[in-house]
Structure formats: C-alpha cells, structure tokens
C-alpha cells in the first residue's frame, strides 16, 4: 500500500492556543485509520484540516504527493460524515443520496445506477422513497454514509458518526462500517474518543493527547504494547506496577524476578509493568506466581471483575491535634508570634538543636503590617532523656514570646517483616489556620509528621504513596484527627468467569507473554 495522505509538521493555532503541535502522520491507501483521544486533543481539528474546512498555521498536507493545503474542500477527493448527519429533511432517501450527483449534472441513468448501488451497500434499497425524518438514527447514519460514498471519494472522513446512537446500534454499526470500508476499498479516517470503536474497526490507531501523537500502531500493538501509562490506561483496563528491568527478558516487580519478552532497556532501568486483566488467571495459591486476597467482585454481565490485593503496604497512623488558638499579639512592638506543641523521640534529644526545636514547633514571628518575618532571638527550655512534657519558650528581641510543650515519647514506628520495610511518623499539633492555609496538604502532612519509610534490606528510602484522612480541610474545626501514612500496595484487576468469595486467599498466574514493559520516560 502506498502513502495516500501525508501530514507534514501540521501546527494549528487558535488565538494563541496551540491545538496541534507539529503533527507528522502517513495514511495509506485502503486503510481504516482511527484518530483516538479525549475531547480537546486535536483529532477533529486534524480531520477538518484534511477536509479543507480549516487551514494549518504551519505545515502542509500532501494527497497523492500533491500539496492540497490551499485547495478548497469541494475540489478535494474527500467526503465527510459528521455526527449530525445534515440530511435534507424535505427530501426522501433517494434524493438525499443523489443530491451531489445531480449538482454535477450526471445523467439520470448513471445517477440511478450509482444511488441504488450505494443503497444496496448500506442495506436501504427498500427505503428509497422513505422520508429521512421517518427513519431511525442508525438508518439516517447509513443514508449519510451512502450520500458521501456515492461521489466516489478516495477518502471518507467520519467525525464521531456513531455518537448519537444507542449502545446496541452503535456496536452493530461498528461492524457495518468496517464491512462497507472493505467492500468499497477506499481509505476511511475515523475520529472517536471511544476506545472500543477504535479497537473494533481500525487497521491503524493514532492515539492523540493535547495536540500531539503519542503512539501509532495496529489495535493489537496499541493494546498489547502501549508506549506509556497514559496510552495503557486510555486504551483499556490495565494493571500498571512499578518495576525494574534487570536485563533483557528479565524484570523485577513486587520484589520478585519474572521472565518477559521485552528487551532494549538499560540494565536496572525503572519501568512500568503492564498486565491486562484478561491475561491474569486466578489459581490455587501454591500454583500462583503471586499470592493475594480477594478484595471485591463486580459482575460485568459476561465476566466478573475481581480485585485481588497482593500487598496492602505498610501503614502508620498518627494523631493530629488541631487547635483554634490565634497568634500572640504584641501591640507595643507591632509583632505577632505563633508556635505549636510538638512530639520528640527520646533518641532525638542528644542531637537536639535550637534550630530543630524552632522547626518542629513551626515557631515564627512577623510584622503584621509588612508581613515580613521577625527573627526568634531566644529559645529557652530544659529537657532530660526520658519521656515527659517539657515547656519551651520562644522570644523575639522586642520581647514577644510564646510557650509550648515538647512531648517526649517512645518512637512511633512500624516494622513489616512481610515486606521488609519500616515506616515512621510523629503525632502532629497544628492550628485551624495552618490546615486551611496549606496549599499542598498531603505533602505538608508528611512534613509535619516527619513521615518516612525505608527498606530493611538496604536502608534505601521507600516512598509513602498514600496519605489518608477524613476531615474537610476547608471546614476543619478544633479537635483530634487521625492521619495515616502508607507505603505502596498492589491491587490487580482480573477478568474471571468464576466467582471468588471476598476475603479468600488466591494465587495469580501469568506467562512471560502477558507482561508488557513501558519506559517511564514521557509517561505523561
């Protein structure tokens, strides 16, 4: 198949907003090509540029190696079918299909022959005299397709033509469209945000996002070998797990090594591992490569979507005491000052400095008029290496001061022998204003609690991936709240025909062919 259409560095700018960012794409003769992506990704804009309804800001469109960028729509060998079929309501089916041929002044017998051939192709021979307003949505769409095809274009452009149909009819028309394309033997370029449509009909899928092409390939390639996490998630359900490519054909995830079919990565490169739900099998635990607990089961009509948790992660919970206290006010010096009670581990006392105390108490002073910080001049306290409550007073040079408590306790840490990791955090004292004014509360909670985790095998840091709390930060009131910090857990979705009880322990099995490796570079 030769190249029929070539997009070369197509850029489209609408009032300073880049909608297409240098698109390069080749489309062959007789291909069914789908432009797939979410709303606003630029797929319809690219289609309209090919149809001649829009001009590119930069770049050119080649059709049979001829630049058609400045050729008007009616002189291009393309026809378009839109979601709104734009049929003539005062005409019957025959006259709608024949309209373009009559404009071209073709002989009546030629028109009759061509129109009836098209109506037979779309299964509407018996409806030639029916008013289009008396036809169903699916029938109207067939009329629109026949009207476009009767002009014998080299390319048919379809802009979400099934969007107005119900689910059952849409599925029927997907197969009909593919059949029609194969029978007429011309190029179809189809725009949709529906992944199933793209997978069902296409010879080639072009996945787009924010004006750029992320991946081009056959439905099988796109589905089985997505280039990054965005494509994997957009094109279907995926289990995506952090992994390390140890060497060609060998990957490690969940701290275990697995054979795979991928190669060409750097040794020890961090990667994303994709396993599709239908590629996982639930087996007895002793037969599984992984072991987990069934967390939920959802009936999907022809199968069960079963979620199995193989690793819950290591978690630690702290108490956050929120007060409604306001800053200390020193009218004479025009200063404000605040600080919070805070926790200390006994082991921290030996290396405790004034800077540590100021930071842990979040002690600060400021001028309310200029909103500039005032230095804390003095930190007064007495402490011993045992559990207890110890007052500490912070003062400025002008005499503004505030006293809070240092609460010394045993370390708050959790050790997981199962996952060979440890997690640590301290209880938190904060004011209502601290919580309400936080711009990145999840990050701040980690910082305030000094939350951290690490591997017991090599002391390497382990990421805390989840911070769990049940309060509304914008409407928080004084009181005590629990905050939980958790390292990464793993859950897998599996498509099963058998039902498994929630809470049952099962094994998960898969083959090297079921594992697909993606580079983490450019995942978003």
Q: Care to describe what's here?
A:
The strands form eight sheets. Strands 6-7-8-3-9-10 form a six-stranded mixed β-sheet, with helices on both faces. Strands 13-12-11-14-35 form a five-stranded antiparallel β-sheet, with no helix packed on it. A five-stranded antiparallel β-sheet has the order 15-34-16-17-33, with no helix packed on it. The chain is an alpha+beta fold and 524 residues long. Strand 1 and strand 2 form a beta hairpin. It has eleven helices and 35 strands. The chain is elongated. The longest helix has 18 residues. Helix 2 packs parallel to helix 4 and helix 3 crosses helix 4.
Mean pLDDT equals 89
- The counted number of beta strands is 35
Low-confidence stretches: none
Radius of gyration: 33 Å
Write the layout of secondary structure elements.
Elements: E1 3-14, E2 17-28, E3 32-36, H1 43-51, E4 58-63, E5 66-67, E6 78-82, H2 93-103, H3 108-121, H4 137-149, E7 155-159, H5 167-184, E8 187-192, H6 195-201, E9 204-209, E10 212-217, H7 219-224, H8 229-234, E11 239-247, E12 250-253, E13 256-259, E14 269-275, E15 281-283, E16 290-299, E17 304-311, E18 315-323, E19 328-330, E20 335-338, E21 342-345, H9 354-361, E22 364-367, E23 372-374, E24 378-381, E25 388-395, E26 401-409, E27 413-416, E28 421-424, E29 428-431, H10 432-437, H11 441-448, E30 452-455, E31 464-468, E32 479-487, E33 490-496, E34 505-509, E35 516-519
Parallel strand pairs: 3-8, 3-9, 6-7, 7-8, 18-29, 21-26
Antiparallel strand pairs: 1-2, 1-4, 4-5, 9-10, 11-12, 11-14, 12-13, 14-35, 15-34, 16-17, 16-34, 17-33, 18-32, 19-20, 20-22, 22-23, 24-25, 25-26, 27-28, 28-30, 31-32
Helix pairs in contact: 2-3, 2-4, 3-4
């Amino acid at each position: 198949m030769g190249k029929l259409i070539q997009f070369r560095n197509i850029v489209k700018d609408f009032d300073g907003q880049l909608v297409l960012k240098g698109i390069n794409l080749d489309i062959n003769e007789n291909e069914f090509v789908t432009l797939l992506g979410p709303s606003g990704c630029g797929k319809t804009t690219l289609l309209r540029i090919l149809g001649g309804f829009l001009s590119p800001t930069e770049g050119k469109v080649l059709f049979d190696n001829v630049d058609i960028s400045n050729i008007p729509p009616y002189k291009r060998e393309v026809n378009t079918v839109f979601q709104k079929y734009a049929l003539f309501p005062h005409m019957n089916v025959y006259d709608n299909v024949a309209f373009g041929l009559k404009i071209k002044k073709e002989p009546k017998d030629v028109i009759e022959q061509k129109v009836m051939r098209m109506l037979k192709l779309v299964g509407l021979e018996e409806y030639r005299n029916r008013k289009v307003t008396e036809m169903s949505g699916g029938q109207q769409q067939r009329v629109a397709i026949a009207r476009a095809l009767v002009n014998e274009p080299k390319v048919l452009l379809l802009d979400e033509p099934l969007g107005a149909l119900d689910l059952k009819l849409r599925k029927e028309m997907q197969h009909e469209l593919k059949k029609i394309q194969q029978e007429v033997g011309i190029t179809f370029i189809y725009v949709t945000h529906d992944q199933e449509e793209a997978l069902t009909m296409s010879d080639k899928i072009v996945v787009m996002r924010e004006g750029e092409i992320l991946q081009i390939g056959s439905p099988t390639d796109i589905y089985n070998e997505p280039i990054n996490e965005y494509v994997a998630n957009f094109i279907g359900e995926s289990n995506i797990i952090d992994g390390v490519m140890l060497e060609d054909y060998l990957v490690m995830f969940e701290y275990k090594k697995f054979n795979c079919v991928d190669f060409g990565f750097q040794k020890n490169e961090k990667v994303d591992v994709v396993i599709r739900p239908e590629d996982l099998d639930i087996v007895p635990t002793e037969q599984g490569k992984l072991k987990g607990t069934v967390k939920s089961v959802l009936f999907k009509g022809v199968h069960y979507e079963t979620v199995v948790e193989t690793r819950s992660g290591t978690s630690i919970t702290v108490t956050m005491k929120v007060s409604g206290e306001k800053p200390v006010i020193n009218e004479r010096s025009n200063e404000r000052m605040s600080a919070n009670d805070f926790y200390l581990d006994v082991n921290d006392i030996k290396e405790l400095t004034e800077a540590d105390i100021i930071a842990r108490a979040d002690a600060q002073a400021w001028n309310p008029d200029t909103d500039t910080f005032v230095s804390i001049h003095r930190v007064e306290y007495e402490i011993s290496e045992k559990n207890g409550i110890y007052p500490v007073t912070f003062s400025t040079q002008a005499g503004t001061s505030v006293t809070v408590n240092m609460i010394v306790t045993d370390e708050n840490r959790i050790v997981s022998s199962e996952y060979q990791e440890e997690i640590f955090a301290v209880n938190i004292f904060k004011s209502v204003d601290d919580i309400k004014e936080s711009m990145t509360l999840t990050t701040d909670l980690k910082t305030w609690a000094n939350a951290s985790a690490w591997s017991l095998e090599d002391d390497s840091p382990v990421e805390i991936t989840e911070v769990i709390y049940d309060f509304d930060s914008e409407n928080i009131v004084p009181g005590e709240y629990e905050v939980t910090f958790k390292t990464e857990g793993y859950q897998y979705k599996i498509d099963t025909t058998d039902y498994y009880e929630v809470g049952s322990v099962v094994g998960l099995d898969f083959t090297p062919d079921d594992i697909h490796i993606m580079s983490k570079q450019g995942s978003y």
